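ugh ok fine here u go
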Amino acid sequence: MPYLETSQSWLKQSALLLQARPSTTKITTKYNVPNPKKAAKVHFKTAKQPPPDPSATAPSTVATLTLRTYDPVSGTSLKYRTDKAAEVGRLVASLGRLGKLMSGQEIEEIDDTVNAEAKDEKAVEVAVATPPVETSAQVAEKKAVAGKNELSGGKKKKKGKK
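structure:
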């Protein structure tokens, strides 16, 4: 089967396939980072030219993530490939939700899963990062305690030669 064009379509179609057949459907991921040295050797072997100095030309390596959802009972195969780093992170995060479908659990919407999770995390961070507000009575009490410490004399520094 050909590759799907967008990650969102792969997510939706995979969710539907997992809801239909959660016990037989499998999701496989393959992350490929090509070795630039091997790629250069293979390329120059086929071209029948002497390989140039590896330090002179540094070919850029493009890592790819390939996702495949396969159901052997129906023979359905859904594939998606990407080389965008941001999309790789989003897709790996959304695999957890698809895993819930594999176990037969129901989930909400698959649509912007990472965006919803990010909003929840930001709300938690804001709640944790916001310090409690002191009342005027607490501020007055702190000033009174600080004033008592200043009146008690305490230990004074001696001024002397440096």
